[in-house]
Amino acid sequence: MWAESGAALRTGVQSHLLDHDRETLYKEGFKIGWNCPHCQASSLGHDVDEAVSQYERHLFEHVEDQIRSGVHVGNEIGGTGNVLVLSPPGTDGADDARIHFTAPADVALFVTTNVDDRLDTLATRLSEWPTRTIVLTTSERPLEGIESDLSDVSLEIVKLDSGLGLAGLGETISRVIDEHNDPGYKLSVGFEIVSEIVAKFDLERVFRFLHLLTSRIESADALGHYYWHPQQQTGPTLNLLGELFDLQLETTANRFVSTG
What is the rounded end-to-end Cα distance, in angstroms, of the chain? Predict the structure, then answer.
């Protein structure tokens, strides 16, 4: 689990630990108690909220020394590889992930249909833009709704044909990676249209495409972050495609939780 602040992380970890050990809470008459499965500690009292809160604090004490500050999610996979973000691209959780993965990059590549929203988010929340930002999109007027001043941003918008197939899309992404993957540069690739291609193409073709794309990103020592709307596809689809990724994250505002 990762969070923007220590307080948010503590809250998330406590909640996760309580969910895992909730069965050790019990009722005894009018009282509620708990027995810690990790030590001999226990408690019994009348106030339900206080008992639960006390138990959360106690469980956290068992893992508190494992908490680290200044840790990037990418460190979990060695700084390169592929991360599946289980959050619709336009949500706060997805925005947090997008900033988290883009901020360390020297070159940022995005594949998205919502160019203006994405660039406004980056302009608002990044302390410093990457040296180079490239956006691939099928949007007819990608900057029509932009509200930010991008005059000082090194930005390239590549307009894709709306009829472009998966092979053509993959080749275009590969070419851009080749052009901008300079030695010593960190490259981030944000792929925001997983749900769209799953809805449009046969699942076997999507699997083959994502297999090639994740392999290409890994071979370039880049970091790919992919955005999937978890409610739009079935569990078996996620199980199949999830095998292609080094890490899967569920995101909410200010918190990332690894699910696989």
Answer: 12
150: number of CA atoms within 13 Å, CB side? 21
pTM over cut 0.85: no
- On whether the CB atoms of residues 24 and 37 are closer than 8 A, the answer is yes
> 3-state class of 259 per DSSP?
coil
Asked if 193 contacts 138 with a C-beta cutoff of 8 angstroms, the reply is no
The rounded mean pLDDT for the chain is: 84
Q: Which of 125, 90, 77 is nearest to 224 (CA)?
A: 77
Over residues 129-169, the pLDDT tens digits come to: 999 999 999 998 888 888 999 999 999 999 999 888 999 99
Each residue's pLDDT tens digit, 202-251:
999 999 999 999 999 999 999 999 998 877 666 788 889 989 999 888 87
Tell me how crowded residue 239 is: count the other CB atoms within 10 A of its CB. Answer: 10
**pLDDT tier, 256 (very low <50, low <70, confident <90, very high otherwise):** low
**From CA 127, how far away is CA 140, in angstroms rounded?**
29
Beta-carbon contacts of residue 168 (< 8 Å; ≥ 6 apart): 161
Contacts of 140 (CB under 8 A, 6+ apart): none
